Inverse folding.
């Protein structure tokens, strides 16, 4: 199992492919974010930010998490949880049919002072659409085995 | 329709009730966060942070969003989107059967300098479990009609 020392500060990886289907966009929004511009074409058309039906930002974040988890599994990395995010920005709307991918950069990797058996890895995750536009960017901390 | 002037800095509201069922916890994790401690009792039991099967933090965030959207609708407030979060902290694990609720405090409400037709409302949202423990806290900005 990979450990803290295997996380190299400055390392950048690009991976993932997640299609945001219209069905998934509407289903996620129906359950968790039922604002009109995530559910209804006409309501979205008059929204000055979206212009047409767009995915919930929480759906984009969750899809990004799925790519991160899949990539970690494929490369042998194991997380133990997360204390949270320093920031999260929704930059460009995500529309039905968009195919998302991810770039992850390790910003910091250190041993916990209070719990030396765990490490804390800080990474910037940038989510792109199929046009190469940044749709979301976040800085999150992950707990890993020290 | 309520507008920027209706958001009062310092105003605190408490609302919502969202049960995190075991089925929902596993289904969300299967789709978006398939780490072992969100899916499997035995894997969760040996995780030092969770100790037993726990919800994905993205599920907790999404459930919180649902409570925010429902409350906004009930009170006549309409958001137009969000540029993102200043911070998000996952503080206490959320376990199957937990019932979540929310406290929201308006921290700032101002007109956009670049787009005077919109307002930007910053709020701290705190999510509690049924024991009154804080499970999540975030500071988010919402776009509203000016």
């Amino acid at each position: 199992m990979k450990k803290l020392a295997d996380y190299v500060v400055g390392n950048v990886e690009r991976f993932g492919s997640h299609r945001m289907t219209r069905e998934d966009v509407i289903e996620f929004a129906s359950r968790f974010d039922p604002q009109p511009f995530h559910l209804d074409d006409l309501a979205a058309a008059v929204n000055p930010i979206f212009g047409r039906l767009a995915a919930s930002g929480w759906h984009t974040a969750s899809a990004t998490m799925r790519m991160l988890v899949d990539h970690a599994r494929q490369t042998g990395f194991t997380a133990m949880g997360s204390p949270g995010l320093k920031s999260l920005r929704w930059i460009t709307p995500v529309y039905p049919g968009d195919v998302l991918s991810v770039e992850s950069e390790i910003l910091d990797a250190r041993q916990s002072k209070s719990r030396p058996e765990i490490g804390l890895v800080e990474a910037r995750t940038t989510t792109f659409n199929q046009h190469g536009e940044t749709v979301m960017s976040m800085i999150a901390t992950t707990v890993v085995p020290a």
